[in-house]
Batch of 4 targets.
Target 1
Amino acid sequence: MIAATLGLGGNIGDPPAAMAQALTALDAHEACRLVAVSHLYKTPPWGKTDQADFFNCCTMIETSLSAEALLDLCLDIERGMKRVRIERWGPRTIDIDVLTYGDQTITTTRVEIPHPRMTERAFVLMPLANIAPDLVVKGRRVGEWLADADKAGIVRVDAWPESLSVQLPRS
């Protein structure tokens, strides 16, 4: 098994419920096990700013899937939850990004790990630092990246649905 981190987000419908559903689906997969789930954060949109605020979280999993197979699983979960990709950085019901995969650096036509923009995004760094502040990404600890990031407008909220069918291992 290898430890991987994922970033989840959304701003259409009920994003906390959608992320909880995605986390439940990940944990239900035979090749994945949730190890930690961050707090939930409400964050301003990034890239395309004329849209509703997002909710974001990160999770650490253990998996026996390859990095590309993990990406495929994330995309399958998104499709199963009716994610439609219309506009880059646009509104979405759910988004699941593979951030890290062990300590590996992987670049293929389908996947780039570590996620190429994760160190620029406080909406990724803040929840990731909640569960893995000492994780080294691109030569620096996540907590160090976060210290340099623009955290304006990011608010921690604890709005995980009571009906979450898997007991989240929260930090």
Target 2
Amino acid sequence: MDTIISVLSLLIVAATIFGVAVGRWPLLRADRTTITVIGAALLLGIGAMSLEQAYEAIDFDTILLLFSMMVINGSLFLAGFFGVVTQRVVQFARGPRSLLALVIGASGVLSALFLNDTIVLMMTPIVLDVTRALRRDPLPYLIGLAVAANIGSTATITGNPQNIIIGNASNIPYLDFAAALTPTALIGLVICWVIVILVYRDEFRSGALAAPNVLRTRVYRPLLRKAALVITLMLIAFLVGVPVPVAAFVAAGALLATRRLRPERVFKTIDWGLLAFFAGLFVVTHALETQGWTEQLFTALAPLAQAGMVPFGLVSVVLSNLISNVPAVLLLQGLIPAFADQQRAWLTLAATATLAGNLTLLGSVANLIMAELAARWGVRVSFGAYLKVGLPVTILTVAVSLVLV
């Protein structure tokens, strides 16, 4: 009976990870969140783990940090912060190349400070608005936005979901993490800018921008000032060693404590499905451990620890593109104790798993968000168009990370 449960568990986990990788299950109308929840439910149903083990599998620090960053991003959105960014981009852009630099810079920096998926969610309409106002082809700027968000998010623990998981598991201080990976992110943003210009030469031959149409945005200044103060204090808390989930949650609570803005408006901006996705994924991957499959996987991959960081990083890149970066991190994190320099191994995993997301349009949630929102505006971002930028950027940035980390 135990053998049957073990084999069924492996099949369910494999089917779940396959569904997460391709974004759906054949014959079913199920997205990634639904797939992980169904997978977790099936594993509980066949007795692969107890309910208590399922609770223990969920990394509530990660869930709390994700929730807190979504509240912060939602508050910034309602305050009109992203509209202000739009106006500044239009104001300072002197030509298409400087416009691209501003889009990439804003996306990269904001994604380092906050959560890259939500930054892309907020900024994609901005880029579409700006390019429409300036009468430019939106495609290279949209691709630059998504690629830069992935690259910029490499720099900090709060930049993306896989870094949040790694930060909580490794206990690397926020400042140490940022100091180690920020150089890779900065060089990566420059690489992104150069590659987009080379791939879309025609768009960037013109030296001038059309006179912009007027872009109006509503700014709620009391909330914007409050958010600026709260976020500054949160970043200071990160730097002085306050646990990242605690500092972010306190900041989120402070932003929700308002007399004028209804909290439900903030809650409507939260991606509750993403939180459920991670809870389900934690349970699904934990089933490999309860059924003994994780131990066998680590035995097979143990030579990686002796082979060094480069092979480990390359395996991370490949696995992140096969099964998505978050499941890859959850599987590979068990190998870290076998490395002599565990902190470097954690940082290598963070950099390569994140940068791997730029390889294809399907490589990261940020890419998919950008493509889906663009489609609603009538702009098609094809797999091939993205690959022209994503492939060289991924090769170069991963190489940089393996040298610098």
Target 3
Amino acid sequence: MAEIEEFRTAQDIHDLLRHQGHSVGLATVYRNLQAMAEAGEVDVVRLPDGQASYRACGTATHAHHHHLICRSCGRTVEIAFAGVEELIDALARQHGFSDVDHSIELHGVCPDCAA
């Protein structure tokens, strides 16, 4: 995964591994991606069709972060902002929730595609 810079679906990763000569089942790819996501080693974003897409986490510390995603080319930028974390925690407490997890994906058009 470390050499994959752009987001890829589990099927794409499975196809790549098989093309490289690895004999691995698609279910195994899904299980490993899920384990890597839970460990913070890969980022997961949802494509417009709802399918999960994965890539190696670009944040060296694997710290919690969010993504800006270009609707045109798929370019993804990792972003972090403490203000939203505090807001989400406050909203959760206000409604009696605890142990809240979240993921924020902001979709727009990157500067290159907008030019």
Target 4
Amino acid sequence: MRTESGASDPVLIGITGARARASRVMGMPELLLGGIVDLHHVPYTTAVAAAGGTPVQLTRDARPADLVRRLDGVVVAGGDDVDPRLYGSRPGLHATHIDPDRDAFELELIELALRQNTPLLGICRGCQLLNVVRGGTLVDHLPLDAGEAHGQLAYPLHARVHGLDLVRGELLEHVLPADVGVNSFHHQSVAELGRGVVPIATAPDGVCEAIRIGSRALGVQWHPEYLREQPDPVFTWLVDAARRSARAETMTINEEPAHVATS
């Protein structure tokens, strides 16, 4: 939390999640099946903690402005498809479940984080939202029988199934090794780039795998939280950026001159 007590304060990283009927949860007591639950995948919190951050699971009942004011960093997690109407398209044959309420909450959270320069990591769907919030578009569906078969779910979630072509001089070149491999289970990707969106990595077949907005907002199409080697460099980047940001803000607060009362 951003306080005046110093750099030893925990680095609070908010993580978004899904909301669904309790019937989607195996083993839920019958009495509760008609209820609504917030769903958060444990690997996100584990990855944040492994990188030195303090994970905070976010509910959409909170106001995004209040969250951004108190958090040091944000993870916009993966999930179902972004509503294609947000980027001028419409649901097609391969569309998954669409949750307009989640879209609205996360888009506002992203906009505020960008405005406040709060370090942000968008993963899979979160990466796509980073592009959409700036007016970009998405590839509605990547065929399984073409390129790297990005939406193939035959492999374990931790399996590194293809490499990355990192743009030289860009952020990820300083975060990941040149021979890095990543997992892949997405059926959409960034298409036309939004305002200020910079592509910084592609798959061998040319599909966009990572973008940035400025120096504190990073989107990756793969799922680093599922990779076995933790802490993952991408989460370490986020926590380190959040720690530096919180420390700089604390120094600014402490350097403000005291107001002397006069009679």
